């Protein structure tokens, strides 16, 4: 220990004197380093350098494009420049649907402030629960919509909260100024601005346009710093000009809505056609919906009943049977038909009228709506002729219009008809059609025997469109006289008269079929034209399941026809062709003649 202390002191003196230590004499460094170890270390350094060089070549030479895109993704963004969806206008330019810019709220979840108080406040403003908001703000998501197409008030409240990581953009939202009145015509779009119903769906390609793009640099807060690259401008959608007159449409909707309520009915529809151009001036249904607010929307509200609901057309077919019998020379309007005591045994069944008519003319068969008289006319001709005539007026065929959902109805091949079926088809049972099909079929009477094409779009033509001939003009004029009397004092639809204008038409009432049988429920309708000597419009009205005690078509649908026809003719500037007599209005209070159905 003493010797060791001396040695330490000697070493300290040596250091203090500044003399160098000879490490070569140190026992720790006495052994030499093996050559392979230095080579191994140099090799490791060389391999590491080669790896770095290879990675640099891979990144900067071989896969430059991929890694450049990955880098740009951190700061460069492509913004979509949405195209404005085209407008839908009525025939006079009144806007039925248009796009307006509204705020949409989105977030970058990993950047959203974790302040629980602000998050609860945000959830309340957005109308969702805090748990739902938490699920949306999944940190693994890079982007999430919180509320699309919000209103300005909601957007202002979200901005006032000041929660970090929450952003707003402007998107387009459709507005429908006519609301429920034009809903089944215009339809609506979804949140992606894609058409779902009506004209919005039928003309989706034309309306949508083409989106543009803009490449920008954004900072970490999502703010645009600068533009990079070229801007591709958006191409806005084309406007669609409809044949519909918004005033006629609104009035028709009001009248059918009121009729459904007054008759405690299930539903109703109205179709108005311009017989000069084939344009659809109105197509209204009730119940309806607000296209701009579709919460709690039901299937009944969505159904465009005028096009999608088919029913047995009943007595509205009788004028066509009379026309075919006269066109083929089998009868004239003055030919007598024996309808007997109102009951006619036929093929094991009994065809009946609501009351005995006895010996009446063909003209009176239509005026009094006799099932027996119509049957006797129909059984004079082969089934093939009836089938060809039904086909010519559009039954059993889907209407050729630019509109989704139109149906063809039912018309079986004539070779399958039994005699009793041919008889019942003559007065509208055993076949089916939509209200729209009936309205178009009645253009035959309005256009001197020609059936015309119809269109939902505004037509540039000023002159009458060409049609396909079904009856001769002479026979058609006789039929118009029958229809005028059917809607007159001695007919089944006195309530369809219009003060100041001559009208003609045919009412119909039919039991509804459920399963394989008929039930004690009815559809009531009236299809007519005006003015009778020079028709301008065809109006078809249907009321489904009236339960207020009256169900005949003349009493239920006739008044709606009268009101819609009067308003439409005035709006079109058609001059009255009759003296307005006070007794006409008084006569409308009379109980209508019961029709056969």
Automatic annotation (TrEMBL):
The active site is at residue 315. It catalyses: Preferential cleavage: (Ac)2-L-Lys-D-Ala-|-D-Ala. Also transpeptidation of peptidyl-alanyl moieties that are N-acyl substituents of D-alanine. The keyword Nucleotidyltransferase does not apply. Keywords: Carboxypeptidase, Cell cycle, Cell division, Cell inner membrane, Cell membrane, Cell shape, Cell wall biogenesis/degradation, Hydrolase, Membrane, Peptidoglycan synthesis, Protease, Septation, Transmembrane, Transmembrane helix. Pathway: Cell wall biogenesis; peptidoglycan biosynthesis. Residues 268-564 form the Penicillin-binding protein transpeptidase domain. It is a single-pass membrane protein. Residues 81-227 form the Penicillin-binding protein dimerisation domain. It is found in: Cell inner membrane; Membrane. Its EC number is 3.4.16.4. It is an enzyme of class 3 (hydrolase). It comes from the Bacteria. The chain crosses the membrane at residues 40-58. Catalyzes cross-linking of the peptidoglycan cell wall at the division septum. Belongs to the transpeptidase family. FtsI subfamily. This is Peptidoglycan D,D-transpeptidase FtsI. It comes from Pelomonas margarita.
């Amino acid at each position: 220990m003493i010797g060791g202390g001396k040695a330490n002191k000697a070493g300290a003196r040596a250091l203090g004197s500044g003399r160098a230590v000879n490490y070569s004499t140190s026992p720790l460094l006495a052994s030499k380093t093996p050559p392979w170890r230095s080579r191994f270390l140099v090799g490791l350094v060389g391999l590491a350098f080669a790896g770095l060089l290879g990675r640099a070549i891979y990144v900067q030479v071989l896969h430059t494009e991929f890694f450049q895109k990955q880098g740009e993704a951190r700061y460069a963004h492509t913004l979509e420049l949405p195209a404005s969806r085209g407008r839908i206008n009525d025939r006079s330019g009144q806007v039925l649907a248009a796009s307006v810019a509204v705020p949409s709220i989105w977030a970058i979840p990993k950047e959203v402030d974790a302040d629980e108080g602000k998050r609860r406040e945000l959830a309340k403003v957005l109308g969702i629960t805090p748990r739902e908001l938490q699920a949306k703000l999944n940190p693994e998501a890079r982007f999430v919509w919180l509320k699309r197409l919000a209103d300005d008030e909601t957007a202002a409240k979200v901005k006032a909260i000041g929660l970090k990581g929450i952003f707003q953009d402007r998107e387009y939202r459709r507005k429908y100024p006519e609301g429920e009145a034009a809903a089944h015509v215009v339809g609506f779009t979804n949140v992606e601005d894609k058409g779902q119903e009506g004209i919005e769906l039928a003309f989706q390609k034309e309306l949508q346009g083409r989106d543009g793009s803009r490449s920008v640099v954004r900072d970490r807060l999502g703010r645009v710093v600068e533009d990079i690259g070229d801007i591709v401008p958006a191409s806005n959608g084309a406007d669609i000009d409809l044949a519909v007159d918004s005033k006629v449409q609104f009035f028709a909707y009001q009248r059918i809505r009121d009729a459904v309520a007054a008759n405690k009915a299930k539903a109703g529809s109205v179709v108005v056609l311009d017989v000069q151009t084939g344009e659809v001036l109105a197509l209204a249904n009730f119940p309806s919906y607000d296209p701009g607010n579709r919460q709690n929307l039901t299937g009944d509200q969505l159904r465009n009943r005028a096009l999608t609901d088919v029913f047995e057309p009943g007595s509205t077919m009788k004028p066509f049977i009379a026309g075919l019998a006269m066109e083929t020379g089998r009868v004239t309007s003055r030919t007598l038909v024996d309808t007997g005591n109102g009951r006619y045994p036929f093929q094991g069944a009994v065809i009946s009228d609501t009351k005995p008519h006895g010996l009446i003319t063909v003209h009176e068969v239509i005026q009094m709506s006799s099932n027996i008289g119509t049957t006797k006319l129909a059984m004079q001709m082969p089934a093939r002729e009836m089938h060809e005539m039904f086909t010519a007026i559009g039954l059993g065929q889907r209407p050729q219009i630019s509109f989704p959902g139109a149906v063809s109805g039912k018309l079986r091949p004539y070779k399958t008809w039994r005699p009793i079926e041919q008889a019942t088809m003559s007065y509208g049972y055993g076949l089916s059609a939509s209200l729209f099909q009936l309205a178009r079929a009645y253009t035959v009477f309005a256009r001197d025997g020609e059936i015309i094409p119809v269109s939902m779009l505004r037509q540039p033509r000023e002159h009458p469109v060409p049609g396909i001939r079904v009856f001769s003009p002479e026979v058609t004029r006789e039929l118009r006289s029958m229809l005028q009397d059917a809607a007159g004092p001695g007919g089944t639809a006195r309530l369809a008269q219009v003060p100041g204008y001559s009208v003609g038409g045919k009412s119909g009432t039919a039991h509804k079929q459920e399963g394989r049988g008929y039930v004690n429920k009815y559809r009531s309708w009236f299809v007519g034209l005006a003015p009778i000597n020079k028709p301008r419009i065809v109006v078809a009205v249907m009321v489904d399941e009236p339960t207020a005690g009256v169900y005949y078509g003349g009493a239920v649908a006739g008044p709606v026809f009268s009101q819609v026809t009067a308003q439409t003719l005035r709006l079109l500037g058609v001059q009255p062709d009759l003296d307005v007599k006070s007794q006409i209005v008084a006569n409308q209070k009379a109980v209508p003649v019961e029709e056969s159905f």
